[in-house]
Structure formats: structure tokens, C-alpha cells
Request: fold
Amino acid sequence: MEKSEIKGFIAKRCAKELKDGDVVNLGIGLPTMIPDYLPEGVHLLIHAELGIVGAGVAPKSADTNFDPYHVIDAGGGPCSVAFGGGFIDSAMNFGLIRGGHVDACFLGALEVDAEGNLANWIIPGKKMPGMGGAMDLCVGARKCIVCMEHTAKGNPKILEKCRLPLTAAHCVNTIITEMCVFQVTDKGLVMTEINPEFTVDDVKAATAAPFTVAADCKSMLD
Amino acid sequence: MEKSEIKGFIAKRCAKELKDGDVVNLGIGLPTMIPDYLPEGVHLLIHAELGIVGAGVAPKSADTNFDPYHVIDAGGGPCSVAFGGGFIDSAMNFGLIRGGHVDACFLGALEVDAEGNLANWIIPGKKMPGMGGAMDLCVGARKCIVCMEHTAKGNPKILEKCRLPLTAAHCVNTIITEMCVFQVTDKGLVMTEINPEFTVDDVKAATAAPFTVAADCKSMLD
Amino acid sequence: MANKPVITAKEAAAMIPEGATIMCGGFLACGQARAIVKELAASGKGGFTLIANDMARATGPMGEEFFGIAQLIHNHQVKRVIATHVGMTPEVGQQVNEGTLEVNLIPQGSLAECIRAGGAGLGGVLTPVGVGTLVEQSPLCLGKQTIDGKEYLLMKPIHADFALLGTYKCDAYGNCWYKGTMRNFNVVMATAADTVIAECEYLMPVGEIEPENIHTYGMCVNYIVEGERK
Amino acid sequence: MANKPVITAKEAAAMIPEGATIMCGGFLACGQARAIVKELAASGKGGFTLIANDMARATGPMGEEFFGIAQLIHNHQVKRVIATHVGMTPEVGQQVNEGTLEVNLIPQGSLAECIRAGGAGLGGVLTPVGVGTLVEQSPLCLGKQTIDGKEYLLMKPIHADFALLGTYKCDAYGNCWYKGTMRNFNVVMATAADTVIAECEYLMPVGEIEPENIHTYGMCVNYIVEGERK
Reply:
């Protein structure tokens, strides 16, 4: 797979997790590409931490709904509300997140491990960021789906045990990479799909955690 | 004092506790008479448990704002919102109550004691009522003022210790009756005002709790 | 976003099984899903646990008989009540004395907060309200805690199988707006049940409720019922 | 009800003493009381504790320099920050490394909930968020509790000396309405400070905001400032 195709490939596979009407939160980067790959008839409600229940597309400066002082996204860029969506305050918004009203959150990882632990918010000693709403989303969303390239500069990001400070413990349900799909189970990682470009041994070599292969492991292309 | 004058007398004295802009909750009965006695220039914000921040007067069936299916008070009667007031949901409403945003609540008592304990919601074995919002108000309001006739059928209602189940413990700040005004202090009840129609001994005879008389005890008529 | 199914009050009532735990918005039936409740009363199903501020009213504002969920009490369809006040429905006390009904009374603010906690994934509510009172003995109270020198009761989050909302306007996506004092417990109940059914007086086109003025977000609502206009 | 004093941004800033604890509504300065903050920056007063989602932005949407409370950081007027994210204001990290600034990061939902608890008289917040993470070591975390077999962190209520709200419309009684994403933390902050100052873009006659559509009730607001229209 070409490097340039990887993100789109992962986003396309992520889109298959969704059904019409799902409420989803999309992390920055790769997850924001998921809506481009939705099957016909699947409309999502995009939930934004900043206070939009049903976020729309980012308007351009010539659009009538361009209002960068009053309607923004969590990155600070201009945003909009979709037709029928609403604005919400932070306490109610995160109440809905923690309360399990968000069907799925998709986000990247620095590290994710065989117990479903996730680290994606801080690298000690590096610049000071903040967890923002990530911890709430990982704990609260019904499904927490990590979508990322399988390795970083050739180093595994899927580990037996995370080394970086966690975003949340035991929160990840599914890991989707360009190589395969892992489900996180009580018995560790189970590979349920594989990209036919790779062998199980390829995946093993790129993964620093033990995993089993599901009896009905499918092709990611199916 | 004529029996028929007592409630108005107490309500009038209660009104002196208030200043312009105060947020108050008025219990049923006597407390609802307090607004009739407000000094010139004192406008209250009447806080209603049912979800009105700034309740107005009860409309008659011919009034344009008569809407008994959509705007009611805690007794079920038609109500209205004052100009500039708002409607509020129960969680936010009681958050404001518990959080100390209500300046004063005025309510009656079955029993009140020298420690500021209040019993006004249930008589075991009698008909089943409910505390409604009374416990929240007694605990949350900045000042909890009991206003009532000094005795019930000649029996003291101000006791050394309440016998009925409490509405709230250590919540009452002031007791206003037709005989006197008591402040509840760490050292028990202190009489700060007396109705000149009565002597201190009259009050003692009608009160089943010890109390001291403030050095600067005034006339309730001043 | 997706349209929410618009069903009849009868279909809504049919969805609710015997013995279900049901939250009913409304304060003396103002803001109550009265059409659904009527069908539930007609269904004859029983064994319900009702969670509501009160059990509505033996007599409605225009003299209606058994207004709102008072009907379900009158029909002996309820086995347990969690409420703040039941004084307007004397039958509740009677049935408690007869031993056929269990009533758990809790303070109004605690009820709102426990339902909010149930919908917001919180482990409980730490409130000073009820300390030193019978509330300490409530099955909804998990104990007392001292924080920073002050005593609080730890109250249990409340969640239900169904929440029935009594709304004024509702759009096809399930966004709701409440008129006047209808809002009361509906806002928190919309977040705290497995299945949320919004009854409305006016079913509106999407977009009619301004995005800033939505009281209950469509994402919380599963079904819509068009009820009676008052 | 009574009119609330309408004061200038400069008068508002003058009211806030050195070392005050200040809640600032706003998310990357959207919904922030920017006129008051500007005057606070100009005042040169320092030693502030700021409670806000973030420290606003080094660059505003139209290229403004030090947009919102980022100015206060840049001027070294802040000694402690409670926030969820400070990545858009790199100076925060620098000042922490230099030892002149303390930063307490907490999850966004926990920040909202702790402020809400501070304004609603609750003893703390029991949230599953942060279990097993560095949040357990936060000075805002009072410990871990197991309820019904699940672990929760007990987080401290947050209260402040001042809350600065960034509103869109405000009426003379202090009722506020927020446009778009301005609402964020303003709604809870309005309940959790000794003195609440609402800056607005449009000062409206009383009655302009529908009683059902008030986002922050006038009873929570002490002063009003008319800010810049955007």
C-alpha cells in the first residue's frame, strides 16, 4: 500500500463500523476523513466537544454561516451546525458523553495495549498539551475505536502494556490499522480482519503484543 | 391582637427582612402574603420550585396569560412569569437553590427548635405527603426564615428539640411569630424583637425552649 | 442525523412491558406525556415502577378526572413509586397502607440530581440535603460522607427502562422545546432511560427550533408521539 | 426583579484584585469576556488563578495577537491555571518549565462538572473519567471510591471569586443568551463565583429573550459590561 493511501484505507474501514443515525465523535486528523467514506443512506450526528450536537462542515470565509467568533470547532477553526443540530453547554454535553449517549468515538493513539489501555495525550518532557475531552470520550462513548497507522517510524504502537501515561484504562474496543482489525477482549487482542497485502507474520512483526487470530478472520477488503 | 390580624402582622414583619433584588422562595400559606407588605422600591425575584425564576401573579381565567396546562405553580394552580423572568428545568433550578443563589426562603413549621432544626413535612401515621422541595430550600437558601403563629391550639411549636421527623437539621436562621422574633445562634435562641402587646413572660409561657433576651431587644413595631 | 419514528400513543404504550421502570416528566402533570399515559392506563398492564416528581392529580385544571399518571395509581398498575410529593393523590397513601404500593420519597433537588447522574454516567450524588432526616434511611441513599468538614448524603444515580417526555414542540429529529413550566424533570429524564419517547403538542418541521434554543436534543429521543394540543 | 449595574470593561477589571481566582468562560476565546480581559491585561495586576477550558489563543481567528486570556499568560499575570488543554498557548508550557506557573490539567467533562458542583452546593463529583490516569494525582482529586463494583474519582467542587462570562445578548436584569458555541463553560461558571460579570455583544431591552430561552438567568449575574460586537 502506498503511504499516501494508508489514511484513506483506514478511514474507509472505520466507516463500516457505523450505521444510520449514529452519534459519533471524531478525533483530529485521520478520524475526520471517515464521513467521506460513509455508505449511501448512512447519516451521522457529529458530536463536537466544543458544544455542537450535529456539527456541520467547516464554512469558508465567503459562506453566509462563516462566523469564526461565535461558531468554532475544538481546533479553533470556523465550524457550523448541521440542519437540525443544536448548540449545547459543556456540562450537558459531557454528561451525554459520560452517560453513554455517544455511540462511538474514533481517535488516534500514541500507544494502545492488549488490555485496551490507551495513551494519546501526553509525552512527559515534551510540550504541555492537555487531555481536553479525550479522557471523557474514551470512558464514555459506547465504542472507543482507535484508528491509526500500525507503527510509528517502524516502531510498534500496539503494545503488551502502555508505557506512556494513559488517557483511559480498559477503554478501547477495536483497533483499526492499515494491516488489520483487532478486537480487545477479556482474553487479549483478537485479530478479526486482515489486509490481504499482509500475512499474519507481518502483523506479528509489527505488533508488540500477543494476539490470537479469530477462526473466522476475514479480509479487510470484504 | 385579633386572630384575623396575626398572619398579616407576621407577613409584614417578614417583609422587613428583604431588600431590592432579593431572590426569595415563599412557602404556601402565610409566606405568600409577604409581597403585599414590601416597602416602596423593593422588588423581589420570586423563585418557584416548579421552574420559574421570577414568578408573576396567578392569572385569572380571562387573562391572556392564563395557561393552566403549561404554566402552573407548585400547588397546581395557574401561574405566570414576571416580565424579565424565565423558565428553568428542575436540575438547574435546584442547583441554584442548593448552591446558595436563593437569598431567603420563608416557610411555616410544625415544630422548630433551639438548634434551628425544622420539622414541617410529615406527621407519621397521618396522610402521606412528601417533602417536595422543602428540604432543598431549607438547606440551600442563604437565610431560612420560619414564619408562623407562635403556638398551635395553645401548644408551643418552638421546642427545645423537635420530636417530629426533621425537614432539615440546623437550618433555621430566624423565627418570626406574632409574639416575637428569635435569632437562632450557636448559643440557642435569642429574642431580638418583641411585640409590645406581650411581655417576656408571655413569650416564655408560649415557648417550650429556653431563650435569652438580646440586650438591645426592640419592639416589633419599630 | 436521522428522522425518529413517529408512532401513536397506543403504539408507545404497547412498547412498554409489564413491570417496566418508567420515568414520567411532569409536575402535577404539567409537562407530562398524557396521551401515552392514557393508553398505558387503558392497556391494563401493571407492576410498574414510576419515577416522577409526583403522581399527578386526582383532578385536572379543568376538572378532568385522574389527570396524568394519577390514572395508573387509581388502576393499581403501579407497585413502586419514587417521588418527592404525593399529597395531591390521596390514593397513594391508601395503597401504601393497604400494602400494595411502595413509595420512596426523596427531596426534589435530589431526585433531579440523581436522574441527571444516571444520565450523565456519574457514580452518585453528594448532597447536603437530607442529612439528619428520614432520607438517610431511603433505599436511594448509599450512606453519609464527610468532605471538607461537612456532611453529605451519597445518593444513588437513577436510570429507567423508559422515559416519557411531555414536550410542547418536537421536530422530526427529536429535538424538543418545552413551554412554560413543562420543562421540569423532562430535561434530565431524557438522558436517563434506555428508551425515550417524546410526546409533543406540535410536531414541527426540522429547523423550526433554533439551534441555540433546543431543550432536549434529538440524539436523546428514540420515538415521537403527537399528543393532544392544549 | 432589579436592574443590574451596567459598568465599563475598565470598571469591571478594576473590581478584580491582585491574586483573585477568576473563572473565564470561553473555548479558545469563543464565548470569552474579551473586553474585560483586555482591561485586566492592561491593568498589570497579577497573581491570578485562572479557571478556564484553555488559555485561549496566541493568535485570534483574524490574526489577532494574544486573543483572550492568552494575554494574561503572556504578561505573566497568572500564577496558577486550572484547564483541560493548553496546547494552543505554548507560553504556558514555557512558564511551567521556568517554574513561574502552576498548571492543573483535568478532563473537560470533569472541569464542567466540578464547576457545576461548586455552583450547585454538591460535595464533589464522582466520575469514572480519569481512573488509572495522572488525574488521580491531581490536587483536584480527593481520592477513589468504588460504587456498585465500579471505580470513580471523587473530584473537588470548584468555586471562584469572579466569573467572567462572554455572552451574546444580555438584558438589563442580567438574563443572557449565547450564540453558537459561545455557551460552553459560561453556563456553569455563572453559578459558581462570588461575583459574576456578564460581558455581552448586545445589551437588549428586558423581554427580548424569551422566558423559555434564557441560558443564564439574571439572578446569577451581578454586573453587565457591553463589549465589542463581532
Remarks:
- The first strand of chain C starts at residue 6 and ends at 7.
- Chain C has two domains: 6-106+157-226, 124-156.
- The interface with chain A takes residues 1-2, 116, 118-122, 171-173, 175, 191-192, 206-207, 209, 211-212, 214, 217-220 of chain C (CB under 8 Å).
- The domain at 6-106+157-226 of chain C is CATH 3.40.1080.10 (Glutaconate Coenzyme A-transferase).
